[in-house]
Amino acid sequence: MDPRLLEILVCPVTRGPLTYDRKAGELVSKQARLAYPIRDGVPIMLADEARELSDAECR
Known about the structure:
By secondary structure, the chain is mostly beta strands. Helix content is 10%, strand content 29%. It has one helix at 3-8; strands at residues 19-21, 26-29, 34-39, 42-43, 51-52. Strands 1, 2, 3, 4 and 5 form a 5-stranded antiparallel β-sheet that branches. β1 (19-21) and β2 form a beta hairpin. It is globular. It holds the Pfam family Trm112p. InterPro entries: Trm112-like. Belongs to the UPF0434 family.
């Protein structure tokens, strides 16, 4: 994930910051409790495509 891209991307639900989870290949919004997938190097920034985070993942 290009760090410059991560600086400008925000969660489409909360407009808050995202963190990159390299291991899972996702962009994570702890505020929205959602993880957005990255497919073929392209972040999929659709709430319908995101998975919900568990309580443990939000800590």
